[in-house]
Structure formats: structure tokens, C-alpha cells
Amino acid sequence: MISFRALLSLLLAGMLAVGVGCTSDNDRPDPADAPRTIGPSTDGEGYPAIQQSALEEPFPAPSLTLETMDGDQITLDAVDGVAVVNFWATWCPPCRHEIPDLIDLQNEYGDKGLVVLGISRDNEGAEVVTPYAEDMEINYPLVVGQDDGLEEALGSIYALPTTLLISPDGMVTHRIMGLFDVDSLREQLDTWLDADAAVADRS
What we know:
By secondary structure, this protein is of the alpha/beta class. 34% of the residues lie in helices and 28% in strands. The protein has helices spanning 4-18, 93-109, 126-136, 150-154, 182-202; strands at 22-23, 38-42, 48-52, 54-60, 65-67, 73-75, 82-88, 114-120, 142-143, 159-160, 162-166, 171-177, 179-180. The strands form four sheets. Strands 4-12-11-7-8-9 form a six-stranded mixed beta sheet, with helices on one face. A three-stranded mixed beta sheet has the order 2-3-13. A two-stranded antiparallel sheet has the order 1-10. Helix 2 (93-109) links the parallel strand 7 and strand 8. The radius of gyration is 17 Å and the shape is globular. The protein starts with a helix and ends with a helix.
């Protein structure tokens, strides 16, 4: 008979293999299409986490314009700097866990050219997202109720949270399924934004 410890290990390994926190309503991905991952780990509360998930074939950010809850518009291929695009939902505990990190990143890097964009997958839309965002004191733009064209442009979202990184040259370079490792993400942002600042200083 399999022991409880062995069963728990198998369950955790299965979660880490797909890097998920909460499953979405979509079908599971074909394993052959799964992103290449480096250094799977577990955060302090036991949620699956992935340090980096670099796409083997980065692709250009789509020319897709999204309207935020504040009425502003953001076009993905026209972001002047770096974008962190985070798919989340109010009912997803791992999503709530990483929101403070996204808030901190927006505070730390917003003036250097970072745009954090949260895309809610809540079916109820602003009715539930607005009070949740106020409670969490979210300081970055949020998009709700705009699924048309998103998955076609960025790829299917199989689990929440899922985070995509858009580089300064407008390429989608990373897809992180599950919690991102904030230290690894800071290293990537420093590399991109410091390089951009150096170019600006020379010009």
C-alpha cells in the first residue's frame, strides 16, 4: 500500500509538472506544447512555483488594444518598456498570494519603464474585481471582460496564475504557469531596464 508521504509527493510532483495554482476552464495543454521550465520550487505556503519559463521560440507581442477598468487603453505591441501580463482571478488563492509582489514591482520599476497588466478571468467581471482590487490596494491597470482575441493572440491560458513577459523590443519571451519567482523576475527586469537606461544615456 502506498504511504501518505509517497502519495503527497506524487501529487506535488504532478502539480509542479504543469506549474499550476488554479486550473482554468480550458482543456489541459498538450505536454509537447508546454513551456520549458527551469528550477521548479515551492513557495513558503506550499503553492507550486516556477523560477523561469523561457519560451524556446519568442514571438512578437500582438497589436491588441485592451481597455482597463479605469478607461485607459494599452496596446501590447506599443508598450514603451517592459510588460508583465498577469492572468488571474479573485477566486484563485495563488493569484492573491502573488499580487503583493506585482504591486511592489510596479512601485519599484514603474518609473523605469515597467507596465504590470492584470487580466482578470472572473466571469462576473468588474462586479467582483473592483472591490477585490480596492481591498488588495492594486496599483497597476486591470482588464476585465475582454477575452475576445486574447488567447488567440497570446496562447491558451490553461491555469491561473499565468504570467507573460514582453521584452523592450516587443517580444513575448516568457510564459510562467503558476507562481513566478519574484527574485528571478527582478533579475530579468534589471537586465532589460538597466540596458535600456544605458542606451538612453548614450543617445
